[in-house]
Specification:
Elements lengths: L13 H10 L1 H22 L7 H27 L5
Helix pairs in contact: 1-2, 2-3
């Protein structure tokens, strides 16, 4: 069962993301990895497990931030900021 994650950063740009996923296999892979990582981070942060090393959670957060930056760059390159040009 897939749960709704409350911290989806890119929900307002969902139409643009869907377009990029159709047109770019690389973007689709990056965005898919981002979704997996945010799901995993959410599960780790909301689980009752106490033996998860902080280093592991920090590594997941860092990778998620890297993917967010890359997705943000794709959205900017592909006209998401066209009103500012």
């Amino acid at each position: 069962m897939k749960t709704n994650r409350p911290y989806r950063k890119f929900m307002p740009q969902q139409a643009k993301i869907e377009e990029l996923e159709k047109n770019s296999p690389r973007f689709k892979r990056i965005y898919s990895e981002y979704e997996v990582m945010t799901d995993e981070l959410w599960n780790l942060e909301t689980s009752d497990a106490v033996n998860i090393p902080d280093d592991f959670i920090n590594a997941i957060k860092q990778q998620t931030e890297y993917l967010e930056d890359e997705i943000g760059d794709w959205l900017l390159q592909n006209g998401d900021d066209s009103s500012q040009k």
